[in-house]
Write a structure and sequence with these properties.
Strand order of the largest sheet: 4-3-2-5-6
Number of domains: 1
Strand content: 5-15%
Shape: globular
Distance between the termini: 49 Å
Largest sheet: 5 strands, parallel
Oligomer: single chain
Length: about 200
């Protein structure tokens, strides 16, 4: 798929700078928003329509927020190849709606590392669902767009003023996303290796 129209997006961000303006732009352009926790709250407080991930999964957030987006109704909608009729048939049979855009930025593990928290507390700042969504979206860039940080909002909005997001742009975002998740994992690996229990 060369040109990807965006009709459904999932937003789940730690850094909320520019979030409301970006969400408003998406809504004004007919995009359905799905979101989690604090991100959903901020979007809703701005008077914008947004659906909770829990309403999509029909399952509550559990384990103190450790499990929110790790669900087939989320990842099926992210990983489906829209050019593969069998994938789209499976989504239809299971009543899973595909996503077109995933906007995620990660828990700030660097901040936890700077604070020299006890290791057990620091690991709570390791994002699991966020990297999973980022990597899944980046892998599937032929069918979905990934937005790994607020620094890309302006470009996304400019791109969307056309008829959709080009394959070249989505591939660029995928490469940037894998670079980001690689750095994130490297930082965590170094921290764990250099700290005692």
């Amino acid at each position: 798929m060369d040109l990807l129209p965006v009709k459904r997006a999932l937003l789940s961000v730690t850094d909320k700078s520019g979030l409301v303006d970006f969400a408003r732009f998406l809504v004004d352009n007919g995009v359905e928003l799905v979101s989690t926790g604090g991100t959903k709250k901020k979007i809703a407080e701005a008077g914008l329509p947004v659906t909770s991930v829990s309403d999509v999964t029909e399952f509550p957030e559990i384990l103190g927020g450790r499990v929110k987006t790790l669900h087939p109704r989320i990842h099926g909608g992210i990983l489906a190849d829209k050019d593969d009729p069998s994938h789209m048939q499976t989504l239809s049979e299971l009543d899973i709606a595909p996503f077109d855009l995933i906007c995620v930025n990660l828990y700030d593990f660097a901040k936890a590392a700077e604070q020299e928290l006890p290791l057990k507390d620091a690991v709570e700042q390791i994002d699991i669902g966020g990297p999973c969504m980022l990597r899944a979206s980046a892998k599937n860039y032929h069918s979905i767009a990934v937005v790994p940080g607020p620094e890309y909002y302006e470009r996304i909005m400019e791109e969307l003023k056309g008829n959709g997001l080009t394959l070249g742009f989505r591939k660029e975002m995928a490469a940037r996303t894998f670079e980001l998740t690689s750095r994130y994992d490297g930082m965590i690996s170094q921290y764990l290796a250099s700290h005692e229990e």
